[in-house]
Design brief:
heterodimer; A: about 425 residues; alpha/beta; 14 helices; B: about 300 residues; Rossmann fold; about 35% helix; binds thiamine diphosphate; binds iron/sulfur cluster; binds magnesium ion
């Protein structure tokens, strides 16, 4: 089939449709809305069987999603940013229920300040919840990711909900050519959901999500969840292998681009990694041995696969499109933990924060990050983490501030707080 | 249970809820739940919010013969939405035989129903969800030590209103808030009036759509009285007119019991430690009169 031009959001909706989902609890939030509007239109027109219901909040949406999955149907839902945080209590809760379903998150920076464009603080806030996470770099990966996510979630050795992440605006509203998999092929790849014993029926009474008393049963269930998540590394590998056989696309736990002989490797996830890929090409043309490593699977963390791909690499430039305030980049912390003490691990991990709230990362910045990292390798001195920001940007912000100050002081009848104390009331 | 309940002797004689739960002795909420469960039967799935009743099912035991799903404090009705929708989908697809269908029952305290879970409940009614909501109302956040909630009555001391005037706010009129949504059914009940309770639960059981029940639940631990007095206190709540037994259906509110010759409210109040400051060291005539006036005013409007 010829590729179709689809936005990331419509690609996500296609993923759900091809997965033959039974139930879609929804709640709107920019930049996710197109997903639920598309699904709603299909359900209304009869193009897609299944039922969709708009709840009154994401907290309720996640509760309904988990409850429906725990009753035995295939569930899809989608949210973003503030919605994900609003639902956070239930994100943890339903993961503990071992309710397998798929939640698409369209990444968007978190308040405050409130904004619309992408970074990964939202999805990373859920990293310890028990939800598994697949991160997409383009619209094709979004469709594929949703299908892989159902296989992973419903696998008897896993049985956990899975989040599929795409970046707001950069993917959600960007049309790219997408090959929609043949529904019959998908039906082969993804069999109907078999809930096993975890469901509700009068003839088989079941108590789910009951309380525990004390640390021992609590630890038991938490460890069970963790072990199931760890199973998901090899399960994902098998599923991705089957996916490649059937659909011809490589969807492994990491994307390793030009890493084979690389000295310096960019390490980052999401759509901005495609910018890194471009930079790698340019740098290669300039004779530098640079590569890109991009985790698709972030939970479970494929530590061995990542370490394997970085063997022999001298320096890694970790680019975090997130900020753990007071700490730094989440990917940098996790990569350091995964590599520490491993033989053959890169000696240098530099840390860069960039792309917050959709801020562009320019090719020049990629060249710089590679240069800084190479220099650290040469000198053996790792520089402190950098917050990417240009002098021009700072100048623009200062200009805006001065314009606003002048406007306030010249037009406000009371002068405003811009005047020295005591002068406000003198007019 | 197909027989219609008219008299005490029609009440179910088999009891479904297991014993040995960790509820306090004399728990008025458990008393009501026992009776409700007997009428609803075991083909139910209880969707529970955080509260005392969460401890009914503690791994790996449950007193229920049917099913149970604990959710969170604020979203049990959304859990009911997910379960109901999923059951309907399974029935429609022929993946669940009709005899395997379940009555979906939300079970929460007042803290959830009057407060944190209110938008989830409102949403469920907006969507005409086919479910039963049982709120056991012990007039405070019992599980956390009886702090005041929006269901706490005016003047009651709680863990967060221990001054001489007690709780300064007024109990929210949840019956009216729920009725304003025009659901299929709203009723108030109490465990100490088993016939009234059973009739209403039976009626609710045989209807569809949102069916909303508020059970005033005398709570020896939170209201500070001897557990053996729960039934008496419950009866006094009805007799004095503090807890009107009523139902809403098709836009009409009907009182199923109109207490004649109401004894003074103080007879109800003085049995409970949470109102002791109204009587000792001296009588707080002003506050007692205010509470009585509110009750009188309520019944003047009714009759
Ligand atoms: C989101 C959240 N906040 C607070 C709590 C703590 N908590 C557990 S039970 C409870 C009281 C619930 O009150 P109510 O609904 O009246 O039930 P009761 O305890 O009286 O049975 C509270 C505040 C919680 N479990 N979840
Ligand atoms: S605190 Fe009150 S409502 Fe809770 S179990 Fe004890 S008596 Fe029942
Ligand atoms: Mg309570």
């Amino acid at each position: 089939m010829a590729p179709t031009l689809l936005t990331g959001n419509v690609a996500a909706a296609w993923g759900a449709r091809l997965a033959r989902v039974d139930y879609v609890p929804a709640f709107p939030i920019t930049p996710q809305t197109e997903i639920i509007e598309t699904l709603g239109a299909w359900v209304d027109s009869g193009d897609m069987p299944g039922r969709m219901v708009t709840l009154e909040s994401e907290h309720s949406m996640l509760t309904a999603a988990g409850a429906a999955a725990a009753t035995g149907v295939r569930v899809f839902s989608a949210t973003s940013s503030q919605g994900l945080l609003h639902a956070m209590e239930m994100i943890y809760t339903v993961a503990g229920w071992r309710a397998p379903f798929v939640l698409v998150n369209v990444s968007r920076g978190l308040a405050s300040p409130i904004t619309l464009e992408a970074d990964h603080n939202d999805v990373l806030a859920a990293r310890d919840s028990g939800f598994l996470q697949i991160h997409c770099a383009d619209c094709q990966e979004v469709v594929d990711g949703v299908l892989l996510a159902y296989r992973l979630a419903e696998d008897p050795a896993v049985r956990l909900p899975v989040m599929v992440n795409l970046d707001g605006f950069y993917l959600s509203f960007t049309r790219e050519p997408v090959n929609l998999p043949d529904p019959a092929e998908v039906a082969q790849f993804l069999q109907p959901f078999d809930p096993g014993a975890i469901r509700f029926a009068a003839s088989a009474p079941e108590s789910q999500a009951v309380a525990v008393l004390g640390g021992s049963p609590y630890s038991y269930f938490r460890y069970e969840t963790h072990l199931a998540a760890q199973n998901a590394v090899s399960v994902y590998g098998d599923i991705a292998g089957e996916f490649r056989e059937r659909f011809g696309r490589e969807r492994g736990a990491v994307e390793a681009y030009q890493t084979e002989d690389a000295e310096v490797v960019f390490f980052m996830m999401g759509s901005f990694a495609t910018k890194a890929r471009e930079a790698v090409d340019r740098l290669r043309e300039a004779g530098q041995r640079v590569g890109l490593l991009r985790p698709r699977l972030l939970r479970p963390y494929p530590a061995d696969i990542i370490a394997g791909a970085l063997e022999g690499v001298s320096g890694v430039a970790v680019i975090d499109q997130n900020l753990s305030v007071g700490q730094g980049g989440v990917l940098h912390t996790e990569l350091s933990a995964a590599l520490y003490g491993r033989e053959g691990a890169p000696a240098v991990l530099t840390s860069f924060i960039g792309g917050l709230g959709g801020r562009e990362i320019s090719p020049e910045e990629f060249y710089q990050m590679a240069a800084v990292t190479r220099q650290a390798v040469e000198t053996g001195v790792t520089p402190p983490p950098r917050l990417l920001y240009t002098e021009t940007e700072l100048r623009e912000i200062r200009k805006l501030q001065s314009v606003a100050l002048v406007e306030r002081d010249e037009t406000s009848p009371r002068g405003g707080a811009g005047k020295p104390p005591g002068e406000e009331d003198k007019q | 249970m197909s027989e219609t309940i008219r008299r005490m002797k029609d009440l179910p004689s088999t009891h479904l809820l297991g014993t040995g739960t960790p509820m306090c002795s004399g728990c008025g909420g458990l008393e009501a739940l026992h009776q409700i469960y007997d009428v609803l039967g075991e083909n139910t799935v209880f969707v529970n919010a955080a509260g005392c009743m969460t401890l009914l099912s503690v791994y790996p035991f449950t007193p229920f013969r049917g099913s149970w799903l604990y959710t969170a404090m604020g979203s049990a009705p959304a859990g009911a939405q997910g379960v109901r929708d999923a059951l309907d989908i399974l029935l429609q697809q022929g993946r669940l035989p009709p005899e395997d269908d379940l009555q979906v029952v939300v079970l929460t305290g007042d803290g959830s129903a009057y407060g944190m879970g209110m938008s989830a409940t409102s949403g469920a009614m907006d969507r005409d969800l086919d479910f039963i909501y049982i709120c056991y109302d012990n007039e405070g956040y019992g599980n956390t030590g009886q702090q005041y909630s929006s269901a706490t009555p005016h003047g009651a001391t709680t863990a967060t209103s221990c001054g001489s005037r007690g709780y300064p706010g007024y109990k929210k009129d949840l019956f009216s808030v729920w009725s304003a949504h025009r659901p299929s059914y709203v009723a108030t009940v109490i465990g100490s009036e088993p016939l009234d309770l059973a009739k209403k639960i039976e009626k609710a059981r045989d209807m569809t759509g949102p069916r909303m029940i508020i059970a005033l639940s005398p709570c020896p631990t939170g209201w500070d009285y001897d557990p053996k007095d729960s039934v008496d206190i419950g009866k006094l709540a009805v007799k004095t007119g503090v807890w009107p037994l009523k139902e809403y259906e098709n836009g009409v509110v009907t009182h199923t019991r109109v207490p004649r010759d109401r004894p003074p409210v103080e007879e109800y109040l003085q049995r409970q430690g949470r109102f002791a400051h109204l009587f000792r060291p001296e009588r707080n005539e002003e506050l007692l009169a205010e509470i009585q006036d509110r009750v009188d005013h309520y019944w003047e409007e009714v009759v």
